[in-house]
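Have a close read of the entry that follows and walk me through the local backbone shapes. See right below:
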Amino acid sequence: MKVFFGSLLFVLCLNTFAATQNVLTITNDIDTNIMTITVRDDGAEFKTMTKEERTNTGSLVNRGEFDLKDLQKAQTMQVKSGRDIVKIKFSSGFDSVYGGAFTMNYLFNGVTGERRNLELDLRKNGSKWEVTVGNKLTKKLHVIGNRKAIVGVVGIAEIQVR
């Protein structure tokens, strides 16, 4: 019985050190959906990144969870009409304790297939994970649609740091 309670206490203590932090909120001018990016660590090391897209009423559109191995390969964060719109890829030098650089690759023009990149950093600052773009701390990104006459939205014109 003592072993059972000791084991239970150990598991509860481990979970106490695990933390989930919202590191990015992504809005856009195309629809009213909001995507949140959260990071979960065990108190010392990065464990997973989760993306959740919800409507403005809070209904879940989609969700995905990725570990470090997944993220060191390009992982699709957004799909529309069967096309990969946004992908995230961590650098090969990303450190699970301290963080590192990552790239947000996005479809600029679906007609031509042109893609562009936004370079970001996910770094540990004390006990918190933070995202920076060009050494500027950010918690919000805003996506501007690339609109063409008659066709409408063909991709992402730019991603604004807010």
Residues 3-16 have pLDDT under 50 and may be disordered. The first helix runs from residue 2 to 17.
